[in-house]
Amino acid sequence: MCLRGDIIRLWVIGMTEQEFNSIVVDIHYYNHRMCTPSWVIEERVNSFVDLTYVVAGKAEYTIDGVCHTVRAGDLICVQKGCRESAVAVPDDLMDCYSVNGYIYDLNGREMALPFRTVSHVGVRQDIIALYQELNTAWLVRDPGYMTKARAIFMLILQRFYQLICHSGYQRNYDKRIKKVLQHVVDHYHEPLTVAEMARMVNLSPLYFGNFFRQETGQTFRQYLTLIRLNQAESMLNSGMYKVKEVAVECGFSDVYYFSKVFKEHFGVSPSEVLKAKR
Fold first, then answer.
1. What range defines the domain where residue 100 resides?
2. Beta carbons within 8 Å of 202's beta carbon, 6+ residues apart
3. Final residue of a domain: which of 136, 165, 194?
């Protein structure tokens, strides 16, 4: 009898966010698989990473000797070197998207994905839409299709990473909050205020402040500061700007306050970042 995979293996391979942001993918094989009653994966030792997202039905996988009954909304991650086999469940056939490939760091060293063998992420329309786009790219094969396929697969991996490794991450914001978040990204260098944002979405400042924190887990001021600091770090890393120029361009009227909050957030001062670039 198969057990639920997320009960069997609760560990997640250690990977920092910086390491995840540095991964490079190479797709060996892709398939939108709609299983037949006779579908089977004969036992094999994988020479690649096998990532399968189940959108309907069931199947039974055996991975390194452990049996998993997978269902709609499950993500199956079989790392390179693992032993894998699978069979269909005839009365509830699996519909899934499967990618076999290789994961590297920026130095070309192979890496494992930071996912459990089986994770339940739910049937998510945004992820299905990305797989459908990957499906079109893979089948139509326009010039440069492989570059496009890799880019789409990276977006898929990033979404799974959010859901599995950062389960508290909130993405489906209220449309009013989405409007404010986009406005901040477009106008972070301007002197934005809670009152101004509240007017933009027809809410009182008090209600907006509480609503924003409820949706995002942080205050409006904290979010605005985060966006400004992220942009400041990018500008400093370019080595093309002085600290004062970065502060002004990113909406900080006081360069000393900018340096203080930058160091609190990143652990180094803006001048230290600049010095490292010279």
1. 5-165
2. none
3. 165
| Residue 98 pLDDT exceeds 60 | yes
Question: Which residue in 32, 26, 30, 14 sits closest to 115, CA to CA?
Answer: 14
Structural domain contains residue 170 = no
Distance CA 2, CA 7 (A): 11
Residue whose pair of structure tokens reads 């398939």 in the numeric block? 31
Residue 57, C-beta contacts closer than 8 angstroms, at least 6 positions apart: 35, 71, 72, 89, 92, 93, 94, 95
Residue indicated by tokens 């009898």? 1
* CATH code, domain with 23: 2.60.120.10
Looking at 132, 165, 198, the residue that finishes a domain is 165
Claim to verify: residue 19 and residue 97 sit in the same structural domain: yes
Number of domains in the chain: 2
Q: Same structural domain for residues 67 and 104?
A: yes
pLDDT tens column, 177-191: 989 999 999 999 999
The β-bridge partners of 168 are none
Alpha helices in 105-219 (DSSP H): 125-140, 145-165, 175-187, 194-200, 205-216
Q: What is the tens place of the pLDDT at every residue in 104-142?
A: 998 899 989 989 899 999 999 999 999 999 999 999 999
User: Is the separation of the CB atoms in 212 and 220 below 8 Å?
Assistant: yes
Predicted model pTM: 0.69
105 close to 111: Cβ distance less than 8 angstroms? yes
